[in-house]
């Protein structure tokens, strides 16, 4: 999806996002923050923070920076912080996850929840996550990957042309994602009872050979 399509889609979603996806995506957010194993003083970057549904779950002892490309989604996150996060050291900024405005090695951990199948180039997203994460830090990615069940997989392929409308690529393929990003996955855990979403944990080994970023394709 192109940047303008993403912004338009999430402008539409912003007001209803928490009602539609708050509880549905909650197991993945909770598991990711659990796995992050936040230690006092650590700096955490959350890319595609959306309306900030995860923010109340971070401990107060870490500094969280949340970025998103959609100002409408960020407005929701800002409102949530005003309501619920007065004690937290949280910064929010409008930024493209494929072009992060942070120096190399700025964060201990970088997390992307339900974002990898939304951005135009997952390879660029991951390359940026790796760049801003310190060597030996960790990346966490929660996403739906194409279902291996023949019927569900077929439905997802049929829905693929509607990605601009639904706001993500329903037939996002894990094998292709790992290949394109060059990620060496350390842990892969199904997130809910049906394993429809998956959490990936990756140690940020550097130096890192950048994948061929000339190929922005997402599915298959
Ligand atoms: C499905 S929502 C997930 C929101 C949140 N992480 C959650 O757990 O509910 C995807 C989010 O990614 C954001 N996004 C999409 N492309 C982006 C990009 N290139 N840079 C930053 N954020 C992006 C969207 O604006 C949206 O807020």
Question: Could you characterize the architecture of this molecule?
Answer:
The structure is a single chain. The protein has about 220 residues and is of the alpha/beta class. The chain has helices spanning about 5-15, 15-20, 25-35, 70-85, 120-130, 150-160, 165, 175-180; strands at about 45, 65-70, 90-95, 105-115, 135-145, 185-190, 195-205. The protein has one domain: Vaccinia Virus protein VP39 (Rossmann fold), CATH 3.40.50. It is built from 8 helices and 7 strands, in the order H-H-H-E-E-H-E-E-H-E-H-H-H-E-E. Strand 4 (about 105-115), helix 5 (about 120-130) and strand 5 (about 135-145) form a beta-alpha-beta unit. It is globular and about 45 Å long. The model is unreliable at about 215-220 (pLDDT under 50). S-adenosylmethionine (SAM) binds near residues 53, 54, 96 and 115. S-adenosylmethionine binds near residues 67 and 115.
Number of strands: 7
Quaternary state reads: single chain
Q: What does the average pLDDT come to? A: 88
Return the CATH class: Alpha Beta
> C-alpha Rg, in Å?
16 Å
Uncertain runs are: 216-220
| Shape verdict | globular
Question: Can you tell me the number of structural domains?
Answer: 1
Which sheet architecture does the biggest sheet show? 7 strands, mixed
- What structural class do helix, strand and pairing data support? alpha/beta
Bound molecules: S-adenosylmethionine
Q: Which strand order do you get reading across the main beta sheet?
A: 3-2-1-4-5-7-6
Give the strand content.
15-25%
**What is the helix tally?**
8
């Amino acid at each position: 999806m192109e940047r303008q399509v993403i912004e338009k889609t999430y402008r539409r979603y912003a007001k209803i996002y928490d009602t539609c996806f708050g509880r549905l995506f909650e197991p993945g957010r909770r598991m990711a923050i659990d796995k992050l194993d936040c230690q006092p003083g650590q700096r955490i970057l959350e890319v595609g923070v959306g309306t900030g549904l995860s923010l109340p779950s971070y401990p107060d002892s870490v500094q969280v920076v949340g970025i998103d490309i959609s100002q409408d989604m960020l407005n929701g996150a800002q409102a949530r912080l005003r309501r619920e996060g007065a004690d937290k050291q949280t910064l929010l900024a409008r930024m493209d996850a494929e072009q992060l405005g942070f120096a190399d090695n700025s964060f201990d951990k970088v997390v992307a929840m339900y974002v990898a199948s939304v951005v135009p180039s997952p390879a660029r997203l991951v390359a940026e996550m790796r760049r801003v994460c310190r060597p030996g830090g960790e990346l966490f990615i929660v996403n739906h990957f194409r279902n291996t069940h023949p019927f569900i997989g077929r439905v997802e392929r049929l829905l693929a042309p509607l990605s601009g409308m639904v706001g993500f690529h329903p037939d996002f393929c894990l094998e292709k994602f790992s290949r394109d990003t060059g990620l060496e996955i350390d842990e892969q855990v199904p997130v809910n009872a049906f394993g429809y979403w998956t959490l990936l944990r990756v140690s940020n080994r550097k130096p890192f050979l950048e994948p061929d970023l000339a190929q922005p394709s997402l599915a298959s």
